[in-house]
Amino acid sequence: MTDTRLSDGLSPLRTRATRPRRAIWVVVLVVAVTLVGILASVPRIERLYLRQAGAEDAATLRLATQVLRGALERTEALPALIAERPILHQLLADPENDGLVPFTNEMLRQAALSLEVSDIYVMDVDGRTVASSNYRSDTSFMGRVFDFRPYFTDALGAGLGRFHALGTTSGQRGYFFAAPVIDNTQIVGVVAVKLNLDGFEEAWAESVANIMVTDVNNVVFLSDRADWHFRTVAPLPEAALEQIATTRQYPTDRLRPLSMRNEVLDPDLGFGLDLADVGGESFVSQTALIAAAGWRVSILTPTGPSTQQAWTTALLLSLVVVMAGLVVAAILGRRARLIERLAAEQSLAALLEARVTERTAALKSEVEERRATEERLRTTQKELVQAGKLAALGSMSAALSHEFNQPLAAVKSYAENAGTFLDRNNPEEARANITRISGLADRMASISKHLRNFARRPQDKTGPVPLKSVISDALDLMQPRLKQVEVTFDSPVEEVWARGGPVRLQQVVVNLLGNALDAMERHEAARIEINLKGGDAPEIAVRDVGPGLSDAALDQAFDPFFTTKDPGQGLGLGLSISYNIVRDFGGQLSASNHPEGGAVFRITLEPATPAPTEVAAQ
Ligand code: ADP
């Protein structure tokens, strides 16, 4: 039953302890799922960073486009302005003039310097250069024929020519603007201005992003990546290739394809962001147009850093999640351990409680048993007291028969004498004898009364008992046997009251007197001293002058059936019964030897205050 209760008491706690353990698994699962989630969202995070990088580079693209467009627009008007110079008419009218040529050359050189263009040159209607700002350099245009260039033909035909190409002489990429030199209504020549474009690339190289300018034929004309120069990002139609060859725009042997794939990065975004794969490299690309030149300017931001950033973020997020998971798991683990400890403590407590309950039950039954035993003992004791009394009566019977026989014999002789005296007519003597008879009858009645009291079963009740009276009654009862010994009774003047039962106490005193008489049976000067003390601890001491208590008797006198007397003489119950009676009163009975010989028995009792009626009855 105890076990059932124990397990019943523990099961909820055990379940509660398993809950955090289960929760730890849940945490592990959540962490794992979150990690997978983070891994799965790396591409999205990457896109975020790519968009951000793209947005940052959008400004660079705008700036680069504006600078390029500005430079072109600024240069565009120059040829027409220069063409209006009268000196050019003169020169074209007389191209071999020794005075005019150097002069014009120098003027053009000065103009090119101040206008920040690379070259300004003048061609006659056949396309031959008659004056040039670079007349001093090794790659001078002087005398060179550019009739194959579209800007020349366009200028002759439409009034304004524009063209970009790799310079055939300089090897530099340039943008050419051209305008006709008109003398009256006749075109006499063409002025061309070349804007060197190589310089822009240097500025672009400073940015991490790459810039690429493609023309209408999808040829990369400008880029800070030299390896992309003149590569084609889309298939080149045959006609276009032919035209390039005719105009010598680009070296045709360098026109190799550069793989380029575009994918829209974010269709929701306001500006066009593409994910571009250029020659196997990955970029975010944004494009702007320079319509006049037919150019597309693209800024290509490498995706590497954004990818790296995305992974770093994912890693950090994962670390945070793992750390959080660890912290939660640690907390849960501690909780589980705490609950387990509590469960253990509780189980111990329950065990202890069960033991205590068990022990209490055992003690209770023990107490019950003891009580029953005590009850049995008390009953037995009562029986024994009664038996003891009867035994005492038995032992007294000889003395009693003598006690009654003697007065009876005396009564008989007094009665006979009284008869005789009456016959002799001596009524005085007869009356005296009759009075003696009456006295003897009183005495016998008194003995009989004491015997009746003694033999009666006592009440269990205790109360105030007058000790002097009890001792006197006991002495009266023992009178027949006490006749041969000297008895002294020393007591206070006042009655001494103690708690007890009068009959049982009398029985004890009778017992002590009987033992004293037995001990002094063959003693010459037999004497019994009775001493009564009052006060806080009322005491009755009975001393005889017999041989005293032997060592064995000192040890065991109060044990039941301890006796040194001959069989038939003593049962060994007297002192044992007396001891228990006194103890029932809350007192003590002790035995010792008197220093001057003989045994002393002391009855110590609790003091008691009598009711006024009891005092009055005394
Ligand atoms: P019983 O008198 O039947 O032997 P008790 O219990 O009254 O039983 O006494 C036990 C024993 O104690 C006696 O046998 C005796 O040896 C000893 N005893 C008792 N009173 C005295 C005494 N006054 N002097 C010496 N011995 C005594």
Characterization of this structure:
By secondary structure, the protein is α+β, with helices and mostly antiparallel strands. Helix content is 54%, strand content 18%. It has a six-stranded antiparallel sheet with strand order 7-6-11-10-9-8. The protein has a five-stranded antiparallel sheet with strand order 2-1-5-4-3. Strand 4 and strand 5 (186-196) form a beta hairpin. Helix 2 packs antiparallel against helix 9 and helix 12 (502-519) runs antiparallel to helix 14. Residues 515-516, 519, 544, 546, 548-549, 553, 557, 562-565, 570-576, 599 line the site of adenosine-5'-diphosphate (ADP).
How are the secondary structure elements laid out?
Layout: H1 2-40, H2 42-76, H3 78-83, H4 86-93, H5 100-115, E1 119-124, E2 129-132, H6 150-158, E3 161-166, E4 173-183, E5 186-196, H7 198-204, E6 210-214, E7 220-223, H8 238-247, E8 260-264, E9 274-278, E10 281-290, E11 295-302, H9 304-423, H10 427-455, E12 463-466, H11 467-482, E13 486-490, E14 497-500, H12 502-519, E15 527-533, E16 539-544, H13 551-556, H14 574-584, E17 588-593, E18 599-604, H15 612-617
Helix pairs in contact: 1-9, 2-9, 9-10, 9-14, 10-11, 11-12, 12-14
The protein binds adenosine-5'-diphosphate (ADP).
Adenosine-5'-diphosphate (ADP) binds next to α12 and α14.
